[in-house]
Amino acid sequence: MPGYDQTLQPFLWRAERLYPGREVVARTADGIERYTYREFGDACRRLANALDAAGIGEGDRVGTFCWNHHRHAETYFAAPNVGGQLHTINPLLPPEHVQYIVRNAADRVLFVDPSLLGALEAAYDEEAFASVERFVVVGDAVPETALEPVTDYDSFVGAHDAEYDWPELDEELPAGMCYTSGTTGKPKGVEYTQQMLWAHTMATLTPAGLGIDDSDVVMPVVPMFHVNAWGLPFSATAAGAKHVYPGPSPDPADLVSLVEEEGVTLSAGVPTVWLGILEFLEEHDADLSSLERIVVGGSAAPESLIRRYDELGVEVVHAWGMTEMSPIGTVAHLKEGLEGVPHEERYAKQAKQGLLVPGLEMRVVDDDGEEVPWNGEDFGELWVRGPWVTDRYFERPDATQQDFEGSWLKTGDIVTVDPEGYVQIVDRAGDVIKSGGEWISSVEVENAIMAHDAVAEATVIGVPHEKWGERPAAFVVPADDGVDRESLADELTSLIAEDYPDWWTPDAVELIAEIPKTATGKFDKKVVREEHADPELLAED
Ligand code: AMP
Q1: Which of 140, 205, 398, 406 sits 20 to 30 Å CA-CA off 303?
Q2: Paired sense of beta strands 423-428 and 408-417, if any
């Protein structure tokens, strides 16, 4: 037995001692803020003292309603390391979800960005927020607000000492919490223990994970309210890397200028972020030479995106994960022996969700619970387990029973695995289209359509059909409004017909202005179905 538990505490301690001058940088409403690990450590301890004084200790939840910035990073280390639990809340969720989440988590202190005060006020309800003893507005003053009692961050921590003896913690102690923003039903809470966060951090540092080291300058674009920004604040600190936080609602110009000015080597975000930057680059010159790799996940990285960044000299590291997995599960690195393969073959591998990260186990099972062969063709549901995968939802025995089988998390992702072990998501369990008894991967058809230059975004859903059960229909946002709609639809139809079995060709290709998105930026197929799944759309056959 090791003599000491696995917690987040040593990561900060080591970063301060080994890299006292390495920087933590944030874009804020007042411009760029920058300080060193030494000062970051002091700020964390000051905040720890303030949390102590507010009575926060083991078992207490500290909520955050914030964008990506250095103060948010301070809560990442202070709240768990005093023994409390960092609960990041997604401010883009509908107010009733925020209300449900605060009531369910019973947060005692809530940190909120000034720019998000309105969203929190919209969710506020005296009874649902009864557990909240204090709101802390991140800044040096409190704007006009109905929330109370309220204080500003600087006053909350200001008078406190930068000396603090971190308590010895049990690794089983809950240290973090995040709710899945599921498109159906109530959000489900996932708790992260100290040990889960420690293990996930260590896995991300390995080459088979994200391979972060002290030469890196890490810029998480993925929000810090979404599964701890994929763990990057912890990983960057553990590695001694420089942190760069892009602040509230960064646009492509903000992100590109941070890359140029701070020398970002690694960044991470959902595909739409990277597509937005590519569009920006069409109109503007930029120097992205420091940027070595971008981690793309949350939804599938289209092959076209991987190719275009490769041409810019930036490696796309395609990763898959879930809130329930802290979140990283697979990463699409090139396996030994594949380095020399032709570009197109390489892109095809990178467009898969990738290889399981060491430390995890997986199974792919069909409807009868039998494991499917790793032949790149047979589909099944992906099950995973491991040291950073939860085995339950917070206070939700019903959902726990549905989504877990012992230590296995049933991910709801339908995948194939090729003989080399690359996992490819072909659909979410509810999105896969069944036509005449045969499965169609909506994701593959979407990706093929999105690879077309004239297409900005596309989604494919099953539309009820009398004869076939369901038929695919595509909803496409053209890259340029002035496009000839009919000929684009025809072109996309023939494109699919060329490359896929004929029953995969969508019966309808509709051009629309926008694809509805979830609070985490994914296509909201539930809304697409509600708005567009009209059998009359489908061509007669
Ligand atoms: P969340 O818990 O909100 O992070 O959502 C997790 C889900 O997002 C997964 O179960 C997948 O369906 C989807 N997802 C995450 N990463 C990817 C990826 N690289 N490609 C396709 N889907 C992904």
Answers
A1: 205
A2: antiparallel
